[in-house]
Amino acid sequence: MSDLSDEELLFAYRHGDGEAFQTLFGRYRGPLFNFLLRRVRDRGRAEELYQDSWSKVIERCDEFRGDAKFSTWLYTIARNACIDHQRKMKFRGHASLDETQRGASHPMVERVANPGLGPDELGVGEALRERIASAVEDLPEEQREVFLLRQLQGLAFKEVAEVVGVPVNTVKSRMRYALERLQLGLEDLREQAAEGAGEP
Amino acid sequence: MNCEDCKERVFELIEREAVDPEGVRAILADCPDCRAEFDAMKAALVLAEQLPVEEPPPDIDAAILRKAALRTENAHKPAAEVVQEATVVPLRKRLLQTPPWAMAAVALLAVGLGVWSIPRDVQLESEADSAVFEAEEAVPFAEAPGDDALGGGMATEDAFGAVQVSDEAKVAALNEVREPAPVASGAPAKGAARPARRELPRAKKRLDALAKRSASGAVPESAAASAPEAPAQVQADDRATARAAAPVAAKGEAAAERSVQGVAVAADADFADEEAEDRGAKSAEAEDCKARVAAFERRLRGDKGYEPGPEEELAIGRCYQTLGDTAKARTWLQRAATDPATKRRAQKALRSLPAN
Question: What is the ipTM of this complex?
Answer without folding.
Answer: 0.77
